[in-house]
Amino acid sequence: MPKILIIAGDATEDLEFFYSYQRMLEEGYETHVAAPSRKKLRFVTHDFVDGYDTYTEREGHSWPADLALSDVEPAEYAALVLPGGRAPEYLRNDIDFRRVATHFFDADKPVAHICHAALALAPLGVLKGRRTAAYNACEPDVEMAGGIFVDGSAVVDGKVVSARAWNDQPDWMRAFLRVLRAEAPVQGQ
After folding, report:
1. Which of 32, 61, 103, 116 is catalytic?
2. pLDDT, tens digit, for every residue of 35-83?
3. Mind listing the domains of the chain with CATH numbers?
4. Could you tell me if 149 and 130 are in contact, meaning their C-beta atoms sit under 8 angstroms apart?
């Protein structure tokens, strides 16, 4: 059974984590959660309020990381999923995050990222020349990294599928699963 890696951290967007995590399990993929350390992660929920210039943040659910990023052997995984939230702001500074995430791009494996996950990918150089969706406030980061910002709910560029935010999840996962099934099908499906 192909294995999927989801990288998360404290302040990962609750909906973006759980939706993708449960979809991978539902499809029959063995799914592991990695974080800077092996611990119980605390997620957040973001919402949009009329008259508020940005989004609001509230405490979300918690979930245990299966392994620390330093213990991840990325070659063992068929694909990578990166939810957004505030976690990408600090994940991008983690040397093991950089090692693991870069592997998936260098090996041309499927990658799904959403919302603020683009902030963690931009410093790696992996967005250069790539059509990429992200939360609209991340447009300058995508462009400074040499990416082409696209305001879309499921932007497919090769084996990379990106989206703007949690309300795009059905389109995002539908597109990602088409890529994933072609590259790493689950036996018997």
Report:
1. 116
2. 999 999 999 988 878 888 877 788 999 999 999 999 999 999 999 999 9
3. 3-183 (3.40.50.880)
4. no
